[in-house]
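Most newcomers find our protein records easier to grasp once they have seen one. A learned vocabulary of local backbone shapes supplies the integers on the structure line. Here is such a record, shown just as it appears in the course material:
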Amino acid sequence: MKNKKIFLLIILMVTAVTAYTQQYNAEKDFLTKIVDNGKGVEITTYIGRKSEVRIPEYIQNLPVTSIGDWAFVNLSLTSLTSITISNTVKSIENMAFCECRDLTTINVDSGNRNYSSEQGVLYNKNKSTLIAYPPGKKGAFTIPNIKDIAENT
């Protein structure tokens, strides 16, 4: 009976460590700062090495509300090909993805109130402004009927 209790305790400890590690791994790829008077997080720098990145909804129990200027600039050690923007992101600052030479797809969670994507291209929610065209996207592209092209594309 004592061995069963010890075995169960070990399993619980391993499960807890695994759960903590998975949560930590979701956040460790980003440098951040607190914004919105302590109510949100801005991603200031991507330091991960994944080719497909999903911006998490929360880091440090705060919603990720912003992607900062040049947040994905230092990507010489990785080949980021796809990024998915979560539904909590309210702003994407200047040149956030411009140095991502292998980036071919920018997707936006359908629940995002500020941004959308089509064919891997980033737009504002109602698709009247082209926000970012992935630098690594190849082939012909027809600019849809939009009113504006953002300066940070």
Q: What stands out?
A: Helices lie at 2-27. Residues 2-149 form a domain with the Leucine-rich repeat, LRR (right-handed beta-alpha superhelix) fold (CATH 3.80.10).
